[in-house]
Amino acid sequence: MRYQYPLLNAEMPCRDDVLALAPSKAVPLLAEHLTQCGLSCFLDRSDAQQRLCAYGLDGTCCRRCLWGPCRVSEDKPGICGAGPALVVLSNHLRMVAAAAASHGSHAKARLEALLAVGEGRAPGPIRGVKRVEQLASALGVPLQENGSARPAELVAGDLARLLYEDLGKARPGPMHLLEALAPPECVEMWRGLEVMPTSTMSEVFEALHRTGLGADSDWRNAALHELRLTVAFFWGAVVVASLASEMLYGPPVPAEGEVGYGTLADGQGVKIAVHGHQPGVAEAVLAACEEPELLAEARSAGASGFDVYGLCCTGQELLARHGVPSLTGILGQELALATGALDALVVDLQCVIPGVMPIAEAQGTAVITTHDSNRLEGAVHVPFDVEDPQRTARAVLRLAIEAHGRRRGARRYIPATRARARTGFDENGILAAFGGEEGLLSHMRGGDIRGLVTMVSCNSPKVPYERSNVVLARELLRRGILVTTTGCAAHALLNDGLASAAAREVCSSGLRRALERADLPPVLTVGACVDNTRTFFLWQRLAAAAGVPLWELPLFYVGAEPGNEKAVGMGMAFLAHGVSVLAGYPLPVPVPTARPKEGGALDDLVRVANPVADFFASGVAELLHARIVVEPVPELAAGAIQADFKRKRQALGW
Ligand code: BF8
Fold first, then answer.
1. For 425-652, CATH number?
2. Residue with CA at minimum distance from ligand 1 atom 7
3. Which residues line ligand 1 (CB under 6 A)?
4. Which atom of ligand 1 is nearest to the CA of 277?
């Protein structure tokens, strides 16, 4: 490792480290291939950015007004007088506000699509009828009218209007979904802390307001707003986005297939990767791939049809519902293009990095954006028509066919890395496999399953790419801990083969026994990042069946390689529900950290005196019954989770 974190007991990898340590054999091959082509990727740019600014890493760089930027420390406050605790907390609060804006925009786009179907402006049909009925019952939306059942589309339209209020209302008042579905013990805790939110948009607005120059300078009070915002982030944005997609496109469907870069070698079709977070475009593209007219056009360009692949969270959405092969997550997108196999990259929203463009241009790959919030310089823009998604999809496919014709004979470099995977899980499927809540709880009480961990979020150049996720998952399974996963963590675990039945051999004997009886793989992919709701609902149902609050069960949220602000928000959301969080490296966020003693050996550590860290570790954390742990070494992280579970199991008498 070449780069020492300033003041922290952790190191960042350089390009050579990643090439040596990445679990996927495809990574060094494709990165070197790019170099040979005279192109670069995130690894080169990360090296070029070193050494990173110590103030930025610590969260004590303040750029919230025009007086600075100020580099703040205990003995050197900012020009306005702000000390490090206020700056760290305010920066963190703005990160969570950005996270809420991201998932909130995602939710808004889904609600627009749902409303268009509900009002008969878009074709439908509603595929998640059961979810519509369940939510209608929970929110008091009538399912009958004059003695007959109302069409699911009309009910879904009513639900969309209610959920829009949770996302965006400005006047104080209860949030519908939160009141109907959140665990009562959490609601009581939030009421006690006076952090019940108004709506996601309102709390984002307020977060930006109170972190402005000369606004809320009591960082403890600002921290309470962060909790309020976090609750709104989850119940007004994340849950809404996930459930709206389920209403539109249905729940996950169990499937078995193959994933990874190597699958790009299969088939002779026009090759298209869908990328982003909104399954709307991708679902329409998938449907249009079956249209006879487009198939004929593809054939006349020399292709056998269409081969669709998934990247990032849109990839997880299509994998969950249709078994479409997924390729990789956020830091693999440049490598996927480096294969030269893709005719088109179809982008919707979020986590699409500008680094893709030079590679796509060099390969002749058409890059097509579909949402105005997510344009790329040099890409073709085909605006998504929420009322006629197929029209958008046809235009996109015609651009892909054109690129295929242009690229005939293009050189490909596809590493033969692929893995089998069983996918398409949600809380209902997982519980059914174990014989219901009591079935899973009896495995947990008996000790075959020592606890449940969800591994979520991104990739980061701050740790060896994907290694933290893969090694930590393997260590957890070895310790008898069952893993659910979403987003880019899921891509890493899928490509490592951990979502296949064969990977049960990695598990402790007890976990293996439980998984064999349930006929499940050891890592259960539950979808995209917004579908962390599925893990949450699974845990919530288990806690209710066990008759204990969430924080008494052996549960842990793991963000081993967080990168996006959305990952910070999601960790905070689970924390706000009483679930402890493990972050895989020191973030510029309020977490307790250690640093070497001045003049001492590297392993001679002192705990950093950081009042924000103390507040989250022992102040508010006591009320939330949960804490944030930072541990970059995956083997040690697994040990910390195991120790936490041991304490919880003892307290439960398990
Ligand atoms: O929402 S895991 S890099 S793709 S933010 Fe983005 Fe992170 Fe990947 Fe999906 Ni989630």
1. 3.40.50.2030
2. 458
3. 277, 312-313, 329-330, 351, 457-458, 487-488, 528-529, 563-564, 566-567
4. 9
CA atoms of 279 and 534, how far apart (whole Å): 17
Q: Which atom of ligand 1 is nearest to the CA of 457?
A: 2
Contact 582, 53 (CB under 8 A): no
The SS3 call for residue 377 is coil
Report the distance separating Cα 454 and Cα 258, nearest Å: 22
Confidence (pLDDT) at 630:
81
Architecture of domain 255-406: 3-Layer(aba) Sandwich (3.40)
In whole angstroms, how far apart are CA 315 and each of 275, 310, 594? 6, 3, 37
- CATH 1.20.1270.30 residue ranges of the chain are 84-249
Token representation of residue 96: 């969570």
A 10 A CB-CB count for 579 gives 22
Residue nearest to atom 1 of ligand 1 (CA): 529
Which residue puts its alpha carbon closest to atom 4 of ligand 1? Answer: 312
Rounded-to-integer distance, Cα 184 and Cα 174, Å:
14
Q: Which residues contact 135 (CB under 8 A, 6 or more apart)?
A: 141, 159, 243, 247
* Backbone torsions φ then ψ of 73, nearest 5 degrees: -140, 175
Tell me, what's the pLDDT at 632?
A: 84
Do the bridges between strand 70-71 and strand 270-276 make them parallel or antiparallel, or are there none, so unpaired? unpaired
Determine the pLDDT at residue 342: 98
pTM over 0.85: yes
CA of 528, closest atom in ligand 1: 9
The tens digit of pLDDT for each residue in 280-305 reads 999 999 999 999 999 999 999 999 99
Mean pLDDT of 19-36: 98
CATH of domain 84-249: 1.20.1270.30
Phi, psi of 277 (to 5 degrees): -140, -15
Q: What number is the average pLDDT over the span 555-573?
A: 96
Secondary structure, 3-state, 161-200:
HHHHHHHHCCCCCCCHHHHHHCCHHHHHHHHHHCCCCCCH
CATH 3.40.50.2030 in the chain is located at 255-406, 425-652
* Position in ligand 1 atom list of the atom nearest CA 570: 10
Confidence check: pLDDT of 598 > 70: no
Output Rg (C-alpha) for the chain, integer angstroms.
24
Chain position carrying tokens 């307290």: 651
